[in-house]
Amino acid sequence: MNPLRALIMAAARNEAVRSLVASAPISRDVVRRFVAGETTQDAVAVTRELGLPVTLDYLGEDTTDEAQAEQVVRAYLELLEALHAAGLASKAEVSVKLSAVGQALDESLALTNASRICAAAGQVGTTVTLDMEDHTTTDSTLRVLTELREQWPWVGAVLQAYLHRTLDDCKSLSGNGSRVRLCKGAYAEPASVAYTDPHEVDLSYVRCVNALMAGDGYPMFATHDPRLIEIIGERARWYDRARDSYEYQMLYGIRQAEQRRLGARVYVPYGEQWYGYLMRRLAERPANVTFFLRSLVSRS
Ligand SMILES: Cc1cc2nc3c(=O)[nH]c(=O)nc-3n(C[C@H](O)[C@H](O)[C@H](O)COP(=O)(O)OP(=O)(O)OC[C@H]3O[C@@H](n4cnc5c(N)ncnc54)[C@H](O)[C@@H]3O)c2cc1C
Predict the structure, then answer these.
(1) Is there a catalytic annotation at residue 28?
(2) Which residues line ligand 1 at a C-beta cut-off of 6 Å?
(3) Largest Cα–Cα distance of the chain, in whole Å?
(4) What class, spelled out in words, does domain 36-273 have in CATH?
(5) Where in the chain do CATH 3.20.20.220 domains reside?
(6) 71 — phi, psi (to 5°)?
(7) Which among 15, 120, 185, 290 is least surrounded, fewest beta carbons within 10 Å?
(8) In angstroms, what CA-CA distances link 270 with 60, 95, 100, 134, 135?
(9) What is the pLDDT of residues 55-99, one digit of tens each?
(10) Which pathway does the UniProt entry assign to this protein (predicted)?
(11) CA atoms within 13 A on the CB side of 141
């Protein structure tokens, strides 16, 4: 991990920093730039305002007990119901972290809980994508994906280009009906399993783009990187891919004009547990930290 990023993540774990940031009202522009809000209503309102397809993430990682996992499932069920009631379900899917629904406690609990979310999504006519977390969870997440796809073949998964294994995973998941979201990867991974040089990660991303474009699945390219976006467009022409046979995805608050130009799907996080997510976004781009600190000082 680059030293500045490591420093920001270390500061983020400091209790004084946490309480300063976490006590900032959610309405502050800086938090709102990256997070839709804390409630289901906030998530639905942002979905309506954006006017782009979205994937909604209820923020809640590293669930340590069954009650907490149950609360996350209920939040997703409430969200899907609210999207349906607002007539927005066809353009809004959900992203789920298996760790939030009990993966660390028991894989079968995560499978049961994810199944409940998939059943509700299917009922309102939308889809679910499983986020990918650190490499120790990849095999378990792909096992759960395989089980879920038996009943709901449209369930998607994220693959991370920084992992050495990902080209093979892309090939296995490039068949008809398969939905794969390809990203660079956001966790601090050891060199034994991941490319650590950013250029190597980009090269791996392009190899994975080729594997997914050559297949019959529906690739979802999650990146803000202008060079990769150009290569994806060029590869789509090479593989004669219709524009509706793949999509671009970007995070809420990042490169909004480009999101509109590409008609990208926007990953919209919401929920009370926004602190960790916000810190990861700030660490990705240290220029954001200056913006953030200025805003904390000027509005407190
Ligand atoms: C839809 C979506 C879902 C994702 N799901 C996962 C997941 O399940 N698991 C996982 O490990 N990772 C996930 N990620 C995160 C991803 O792995 C990267 O960490 C993140 O997208 C940054 O990589 P990048 O491809 O945009 O390239 P980068 O090289 O990091 O960025 C390229 C350019 O994008 C802009 N940019 C990037 N990040 C920021 C930022 N925080 N603030 C402002 N500008 C920025 C800058 O202009 C930068 O130069 C997801 C990303 C997206 C878009």
Answers:
(1) no
(2) 131-132, 158, 160, 181, 183-187, 222-225, 249-251, 254-255, 267, 281, 284-285, 288
(3) 54
(4) alpha beta
(5) 36-273
(6) -65, -40
(7) 15
(8) 9, 11, 14, 21, 24
(9) 999 997 678 899 999 999 999 999 999 999 999 999 999 999 999
(10) Amino-acid degradation; L-proline degradation into L-glutamate; L-glutamate from L-proline: step 1/2
(11) 23
Interval 255-271: pLDDT, tens = 999 999 999 999 999 99
Give one word for 177, left, alpha or beta, with left for phi > 0 and alpha for psi -120 to 50. Answer: left
Q: Which two tokens stand for residue 125?
A: 């006519």
The ligand 1 atom at the shortest distance from the C-alpha of residue 183 is: 17
Instruction: Give the span between the Cα atoms of 234 and 152, in whole angstroms.
Output: 32
How far is the centre of ligand 1, averaged over its atoms, from the C-alpha of 280 (Å)? 10
pTM of the predicted model over 0.85: yes
| Residues flagged as binding site for substrate | 97, 280-281
| Whole-angstrom distance, CA of residue 280 vs CA of residue 230 | 26
**Which atom of ligand 1 lies nearest, measured to the CA of 158?**
8
Query: Are the C-beta atoms of residues 213 and 235 closer than 8 Å to each other?
Result: yes
Annotated binding residues for FAD, as ranges? 132, 160, 184-186, 223-224
Ligand 1, atom 27: closest residue by C-alpha = 225
Atom 32 of ligand 1, nearest CA residue? 225
3-state class (DSSP) for residue 237: helix
Assess contact for 196 and 212: CB atoms under 8 A: no
